[in-house]
Amino acid sequence: MEKGSFISRILVLSLAISPVFSQYYSKTEPYTPQPEKITNLHFFFHDTLSGKDPSAVLVARANITDDDDSPTPFSSVIALDDPLTLGPDLNSGVIGNAQGLYVSSGKDIPSLVAFFDFGFTQGEFNGSSISVFSRNPILENERELAVVGGRGKFRMARGVAQLKTFFLNVTNGDVIVEYNVTVIHY
Ligand SMILES: *[C@@H]1O[C@H](CO)[C@@H](O)[C@H](O)[C@H]1NC(C)=O
Ligand SMILES: *[C@@H]1O[C@H](CO)[C@@H](O)[C@H](O)[C@H]1NC(C)=O
Ligand SMILES: *[C@@H]1O[C@H](CO)[C@@H](O)[C@H](O)[C@H]1NC(C)=O
Ligand SMILES: *[C@@H]1O[C@H](CO)[C@@H](O)[C@H](O)[C@H]1NC(C)=O
To answer: I need a labelling partner for 151 at 20 to 30 A (CA). Which of 16, 35, 120, 164 fits?
Structure first.
């Protein structure tokens, strides 16, 4: 084969392929909304900081708070893998877990910012999860968190989680929280 035609064939081939790689975005087109569904979820969240097998652990805190002996002084970063159960009792049946972080972010009034992924392991939503990114004013017995997205059956989710503290140990920070979540999703 002649050298020139070989090179021009490569050129033709690469020209044919190159449009795929020439830009990182598609043409912007009008969005056609898909029918959405609404699902309500109800479960209990167990955040255990105490004992030999905690589900939530302190990762770091600023040393400026050394004289603060609350379980989560301002600046604390806590990583968690908390079980979610059907009822308030840990033995009532685990239906998933919340993984993520919270940051103690209230300087004057104790408050957290939650970065949680609630993943489900039972039933219809096994393998799906919802993402929560929100402030969490823990001193209020009833509060709400924003649901900002989801995976699996909860694709494109948005919604709100209503929380009620069911049990709190102010000494060690262990808490059980009741969640009612309303999610709009695909
Ligand atoms: C905190 O850490 C900084 C940097 O190591 C140090 O200079 C400071 O004295 C520490 N403060 C306290 C209250 O321990
Ligand atoms: C949940 O999904 C996982 C992964 O597909 C599977 O192994 C497991 O058996 C499922 N559990 C239930 C209770 O359906
Ligand atoms: C969740 O909804 C149920 C039924 O409406 C209600 O009894 C319960 O108090 C609610 N809990 C929260 C945390 O909103
Ligand atoms: C609260 O935590 C303290 C310290 O870990 C412990 O001594 C106490 O028994 C706990 N109280 C309850 C009701 O769990």
So the answer is: 164
Helices and strands of the chain, counted as H and E runs: 1, 9
Token pair listed for 114 = 């939650």
User: Ligand 4 test: best mutation among 169, 170, 175, most atoms within 8 Å of CB?
Assistant: 169
Q: What is the pLDDT of residues 72-107, one digit of tens each?
A: 899 999 999 999 999 999 999 999 999 999 999 998
* CATH fit for domain 32-185, picks 1.10.238.10, 1.10.10.10, 3.40.190.150, 2.40.480.10: 2.40.480.10
Q: What ranges do the domains of the chain cover?
A: 32-185
Q: What ligand is nearest to the CA atom of residue 126?
A: 2
Indicate the top mutation candidate among 121, 124, 129, 151 to test ligand 2's pocket, ranked by most ligand atoms within 8 A of CB.
121
